[in-house]
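From the pipeline queue, job 12 of 40. The input is one protein chain; the requested action is below.

Action: predict structure.
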Amino acid sequence: MASGKILVVDDEYAIRDMLRMALEIADFDCIETDNISDAHSLVVDERPDLVLLDWMLPGGSGIELLRRLKRSEATRAIPVIMLTAKSAEDNVIQGLEVGADDYLTKPFAPRELVARIKALLRRSQGMEDNQRLAFEELLLDADGRRVYLADKPISMGPTEYNLLYFFMTHPERAYSRSQLLDHVWGANVYVEERTVDVHIRRLRKALQSHGKDYSGLIQTVRGTGYRFSVRGLEDH
């Protein structure tokens, strides 16, 4: 049984061929395309478990497709890893802020890519906890992997969900960015620490929904990192 279905979107045949071989060796099903239009159709029709999306594509940027996927309720939760030859920090941050869950800068080792994919799928497909966590009007349903604010569902990506789950199960303690990476991303996966800041911003934005502002629950601890604190709402 395959480990999951991965959509590869890259206009270079040699890159797609390398990715397909690496994914098939790792027991993933692989579908592929070289353009944005076909990529969106494949996401809708095939419902891949994860998308590997090149930054530069014919007819537009992979960022355009990423924005389209994240705007739709039907495709928003599908994890996306950006593949980019651009190493400038603003390009990486732009992809994360639009909604990418991770990124890799070319050239990269296939083994690292597979490790990133497996870690992201673990984050997106499940914490094996049967419980509901609540604070005032914020509710996290671990069974359904849903979050509610004022009895209405709020949308967030798998990484933001797992950050919130970790925070709600470990309240009132400050964690460094490195510790959050180990607990949420996985100790064997290399992700730069600035990635944590981007996902914290996205989590805080998600917690501002339905006329409520619970973003203050996620506190910045100067010189350390972040903390989930019920006292955050009192000061917010």
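Job complete. The mean pLDDT is 85.
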